[in-house]
Amino acid sequence: MRVGSRLLPPALAVCALLADAGGVHGLAGWLVLIALPCAAGAAFVGVSDLLEGKSRLPGVTSSVALTLLVLASTVRDHAPRGAHVPTLAVTALVAAVIVCAIPALVWVLEPLRAPRTVARLRTEP
After folding, report:
1. Which of 50, 72, 75, 115 could form a disulfide with 59 if both were Cys (CB 3.0 to 4.6 A apart)?
2. Helix (H, G, I), strand (E, B) or coil at 85
3. Quick check: 91 and 78 in contact, CB under 8 A?
């Protein structure tokens, strides 16, 4: 999977959070709605990579992020017009961004893992 397809949903979610912070709630709602098919595509590719035997972390995190974005969009859509943005919607967006960042964090911390030792075979004289 290309990196751009994994970065688009969290980028749109961050833009939605910034739009909410700026008071442009209508734009934020549209950004969350646009992020849904992007997140679905990333989740489908991640799950297909998982089924091929590749790393399971991107598939799991993409699927969880998609679920959180659907939750944020649903809660936001059912809020009364003109009311404040529901806390659950904002929390789900923040959680989706954090979940999308987990594979990058694992990639950065990977060199800190203890190296695996190779068992040496004893050769008897």
Report:
1. 50
2. coil
3. no
Contact, 96 vs 9, CB < 8 A?
yes
pLDDT tens per residue across span 2-50: 555 778 999 999 999 999 999 898 899 999 999 999 999 988 888 888 8
Q: What is the crossing angle of helices 3-21 and 25-51, to 10°?
A: 160
Which pair of tokens denotes residue 96? 């989706």
Q: Please report how many Cα atoms fall inside a 13 Å half-sphere around the Cα of residue 79, on the Cβ side.
A: 19
Distance, CA of 57 to CA of 43 (rounded, Å): 11
Taking only the tens place, the pLDDT of each residue in 59-78 is 899 999 999 999 999 999 88
Neighbours of 78 (CB within 10 A): 9
Eight-class DSSP state of 113: S
Contacts of residue 50, defined as CB under 8 A and 6 or more positions apart, other chains included, come to 56, 58, 59, 60
